[in-house]
Structures are given as structure tokens and as C-alpha cells.
Amino acid sequence: MNKITVYERADFEGLSREFTCDVPDLHELDFGDCIASLKVVGQPWIAYTQPKYEGEPHVFEEGEYTAVERPNSFSALRLVHHDLLDPQITLYERPYLQGACKVVSEETNLAYGYFNDRVASHVVQRGVWLLYQHPNRGGWHCLAWPGERVDDYGAQLHFQARLSHLRPLRPGRPTVTAQLLWDQKRIEAEREVLVDEIVGVNETESEQALAAGSTREYSTTLWQSFHFSNATSLRAGLSFTLAVEASNVFTVQKGRSESCTRRERSEVALPAKVPPRTQLTVHVLRKEVTLSVPVLLTITQNEAVRTEMGEYRSVSGTNVCARFSMRPLPAAGTSKEEQSGAAVGTEQGMGRVAAIGTEPGDDVEQVPTRC
User: Fold this and answer.
1) Counting Cβ atoms within 10 Å, is residue 44 exposed (0-12), middle (13-18) or buried (19+)?
2) Which residues in 289-310 are b (16+ Cβ under 10 Å) and which e?
3) 272 and 280 Cβ atoms separated by less than 8 Å
4) Region class of 157: left (phi > 0), else alpha (psi between -120 and 50), else beta
5) Residue 132 burial (CB < 10 Å; 0-12/13-18/19+)?
6) Is 27 helix (H, G, I), strand (E, B) or coil?
7) Which is more confident, 292 or 341?
8) pTM
9) Reduced to 3 states, what is the DSSP secondary structure of residue 154?
10) Could you give the 3-state DSSP secondary structure of residue 26?
């Protein structure tokens, strides 16, 4: 929402009013000539020293102003509705758009070039511009609106050959909502990391019951990043939140990634029957996954809505499983040569895994393996 909140005293003190549309005369609302501080959300506002948008204009872009340059002097407020994303103005050195010209699309100090104090006319293609008499935004200034054509600075602006600095007004920050498209997720890489190992040996000639357990704490690092499309118009420094899962709300900021370390716990309980002369080996494994998910961005700015695509990527390893196998022991009295040449038999079973973390969007799966 585009809005301005004005206060009768500095530092946002005293009486206040909030406006979301143009106010041609603040006196009619009992708030004329009394503004000393203000806050702007969204698009810029123009404050005028006379009713009906007359007098000296003062521009306030998005932000908080604890004190204004001309306190107790504003009589009208005007919201800038225009598209400010791609500004352009063409300057001419002679009246009626004649002579040498210069196309400008960003803030420019003409004192650093050859066009200082040479401008006599202009036409605005896009955006709203502030034109200043002196370098570094100094001296008398005026506004130039999109589609405006000023044929003679001398006759129309009393500004002949006096332009030294100009800048476009900045648009307000857009509102961004993000939707993760989990049905299009892609697993880029997987690897397994050993968390714990349990070994039980039955050297007797009869079946034994093994009741073993393991509780192990381990550290995992969650690395997250967000990549914008190459054609994005979002500026650096913009931030919004991305709800990856209930316990993970990632703050996206253009040009930034983050990682965090977590402490996790795995619990494995193994009530099992171990055959005679058999070794039971249990591996507790953490699966590390590199994941990418497309993200649909809905961007609302100055009442216009557009969409862009981005990509969320993460590297994490909180999905834990247990794998175990049984290997027969060599018979008593068998030589080392016979032991090394003996065939290895295997069995497989399932342990119970508790306190299992999951990758975003994954189902928990316990995978036995045959060794």
C-alpha cells in the first residue's frame, strides 16, 4: 500500500494523520501548515507549500523523516502514481528540442561533463525527474513528469542554461510473495555420512538375543541460497521470507546466502536374534542431499502485479536411516588362510530409528542394504 503518515512535531510526535490518496488542501482536513515529520511507505509523495499543488514542491521517497526541511509549510500532498522503474529524459541545448541532445536514464551530475548549464528544453519519455540548478542536488529545483515536453526553459521555467544536476524519483519497494513448487523439485546430488556403528558378536553355538541401542548427537550444516532470474528487475538489498518448512523460514536477500549448524540426535534400538557364530553390524547413516526447487515470485508494486521465477537451493543432511547385516564367524580351529577364503553370507533386517529429520519435501524412508 502507498501511504504517508504526517506528524505535527519532529521525531513523529504530536497529532498525526495518514493518507493514501492525493490531498489538494490540507487546511480542509485541519492539518495545513503543521507538518514537521513524516513516514512514507511505497511510492514517493510530493508536498507543496500552497494548496492545489502550487508553490514549491518537496519530494519524499520511501522512508522515515524525523524532521522535514520546511516544517509547518506544507498545504497539499500528491502521490506519485507513475511507473518509475525505467526512467528516461532527453535534454536539448536549444529551445524547441533543437541542437545537441543528451539522453539520461539515471541520476547525473552534469558538472562532470560537457552539458552543464547548456540545457534549454527537454522531453520526458519515462519516470518522474527532479531538475536542480546546482550540482549535488543544490539550488532551485523543479519536477518533470512523464510525457512532458518543455520547449523553452527561459519562457516556461525561468531556468535557461542553468541545469546542473538531475535525478529520477525512486519507486517504492515491491511486495514479494514466494511459492515453492515442490512438484518440480530436483535432487542434484546425494551422499551418505556415517554417524554411528554398532557391532554385536555371537561366538556361541546357540542363538542369542541381542538388545542393543545407540544414542548419538551429531552436527549438521544447512546451507541455503536463492537465485533470481537473469531478467529480474528487483534491486539489490530487497528482502522477503521464504517458508521452506515449519521450522525453517529463510530470509531471502538479493546477493546473499546463508548457512546454519544444527545439533541433531539419532536413536537406534535393536532387539534382535543373532544366529550362532554370527556378527551383527549396524551402521547409522545420515543422508546429505543437494536439492533445488523452482520458486514462483508474485511481485506487487504501485498496484501493478507481475510474476518472476527464482530457484531455492539447499544442502542439508538431517535424514537418518539404519542399515545392518549379519556375517557368519569362521568355525573354531579354522586357519587364517581358510578364514580369508571363506564365503561371506549375509542377512538383512530392520532397526528402529527415532528422532528422524527430513529433507524439505521428502518422505522419511528407512533403506536396508545387502552387504
Assistant:
1) buried
2) bbbbbbbebebebbeeeeebeb
3) yes
4) alpha
5) buried
6) helix
7) 292
8) 0.64
9) helix
10) helix
**b/e per residue 144-160 (b: at least 16 CB within 10 A):** bebeeebeebeeebebb
Give the other-Cβ count within 10 Å of 29's Cβ. Answer: 11
Burial class (CB in 10 A: 0-12, 13-18, 19+), 137: middle
Question: Which H or E run contains 190?
Answer: strand 186-202
* Measured distance CA(75)–CA(258) in Å, rounded: 47
* Separation between Cα atoms, residue 312 and residue 226, nearest integer Å: 5
Q: How many CA atoms lie within 13 A of 271 on its CB side?
A: 0
Tally of CB atoms within 10 A around 283: 20
- Residue 323 C-alpha cell reads as 542399515
Phi-psi region of 232 (alpha: psi -120 to 50; beta: other; left: phi over 0): beta
Which residue pairs, CB below 8 angstroms and at least 24 apart, start in 106-115?
106/167, 106/168, 107/166, 107/167, 107/168, 108/165, 108/166, 108/167, 109/135, 109/136, 109/164, 109/165, 110/135, 110/163, 110/164, 110/165, 110/166, 111/135, 111/164, 111/165, 115/91
Residue 351 has pLDDT above 60, yes or no: no
pLDDT digits (tens, 9 = 90+) for 248-282: 787 887 666 555 666 666 666 666 778 888 888 88
- Tell me the H-state helices in the chain: 336-341
Of 163, 225, 174, residue with least CA distance to 43: 174
Within 10 Å of residue 13's Cβ, how many Cβ atoms?
Answer: 12
